[in-house]
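Q: Hi! First time asking for a complex rather than a single chain. Here are the components, and I think there are two in total. Is that enough to go on?
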Amino acid sequence: MNFAPGDAVVVKDDWPEARGPAHIRTPHYLRGHKGRILRYLGDHPNPEDLAFARPAEQRPLYHVTFPMNELWPEGRPKGHSDDELVVELYEHWLERP
Amino acid sequence: MNILETDGEALLAALRTLLARKNLVTETEIAERMEATDNASPGQGARMVARAWTDAEYRALMLEDGTKAAEAMNIPMRGMPPLGVLENTAEVHNLIVCTLCSCYPRAVLGYPPFWYKSAAYRARAVRDPRGLLTEFHTTLPDGMKIHVVDSTADYRWMVLPRRPAGTEGWTAEQLAAIVREGDMVGVTIPSV
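A: Yes, that's all I need. Here is the structure of the assembled complex.
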C-alpha cells in the first residue's frame, strides 16, 4: 500500500477498453482527474483479472475524493464549491501528480 | 437437448443435484442462501439504523465495520461483499450511486428500487446531485455539503441517516419503522 490518507493522486488517463476486451472499475469521467486519498479499504483480488477467470493478484483499494467543481466545471450550482465525489479506486490506477 | 426449451424446474433440480454430488455446495447452504435472500429487505437496514440511534457502542461498530454490525443483528453476511456505512452529519450528506452497474447493499436493503438501476439516476447523481435530491423532495439545510459516493468496486455502501427531531424517547422498534430505503441510499432523509 503506497498511499496514505491526504495524499494527492491523479487517475491514469488510460483507456484499456480501447485496446481490446476489458473489465474496468474506474469510471470514464475520472480518468486524468486529480483527487485525494480519503481512506484505505483493504486489499482485494483485481477485478480486471477476476472477470476473465484469470489468476487475480491482491491489490490495494482506496476511497479517493474529487472536488465536484473540478469534475464538472460547467453548470454547477453556485455556493456549493465543497461538494465532493468519493469513489473506490485500485492502486494501479493512481499516480502521484 | 435444447437448454432454452428445457423445463426450468427440472434444470434447477439437475443443477442442484450436480452441485451436491461434486461437493461444490450442500443442500443446506443453498437453503440458507435462499432464506437469507428472502429475508433481505430495507427493514434489516432500518433495524441497524434504529439501533445505532439508540446505542452509541453499536453506532461505533457500524461505522467501523458494517459487516460485523449486520451480523450482530443476525443478518447473514457470509459470501457477501464487505459492507461500509457512511454517516450523515450536521456538515455532510451522503448519496450512494453505482455509475458502472447497480452495486447495492442487498444483504441489508434487499433488491434495489427500480430507479437506482436507471441510467438517469446513475448519470445525474454524479453530475447534478442537488437537482436530483429536489426531485425526491429532499431539502438539505443551508451550508450542508454533499458527498456523492460512486460504488465502483468491492464494497457495498449504506448511509446512516441523522435521527430526526421529534423522536426523543422513542424505542428502537418505533425508530426502525420510520427509516425508508431511500434514507439509507441518501435520496431522502427520515422525518416524522
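A: The radius of gyration of chain A is 14 Å. Let me know if you'd like any chain examined more closely.
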